[in-house]
Structure formats: C-alpha cells, structure tokens
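Folding problem:
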Amino acid sequence: MDRKFTLQASSFQAGTDFLDSRLVFLDDVFVALLTHLSGDHYGENEGRWFLEASFGPCALKGSLPEPFFDLDSAKNWLHENCN
C-alpha cells in the first residue's frame, strides 16, 4: 500500500522568531513539523529545513537528522524513515 505524505504551510514561533513551517501528515495523520531556518543566527543552516518534532511512525529512532537543504530532501528522508 502506497502511503501519502501531505505538507501543509503553517507558522511556528521559536522564541521571538516566527518561522515558516510545514505540518507533515501521513495518510491524514499529523506526524512531523518542519521549520524553515531564516535569519543570520542560523549560520550555515540558514535557508534549510529543520525537523522540529516527529511522532508515531515518524518518531526518531536515533539522533536528529542534519537540517535539510530543501523540502524535497526532507520529504525523501520522511519516506525513508517513517514506517
């Protein structure tokens, strides 16, 4: 059975920053939150996507992945790691 990931645009507050984010759904169930790192204080990670939280089948089984270069990279990681 092919599982369907859906990303929904949202906003996430981290301290005083409001970050562009994506709520990640797997077959209509909320499984992760990705945030777009924007601002000089993120250094070399500025512009990348960070896995803020993951749940259920996407719950981390080890350490956090490095920030993703783009949403396609994040989706690839989710497809490979959510089971």
In short: The chain has a mean pLDDT of 90. The longest strand covers residues 5-14. The CA atoms of residues 17 and 41 lie 11 Å apart.
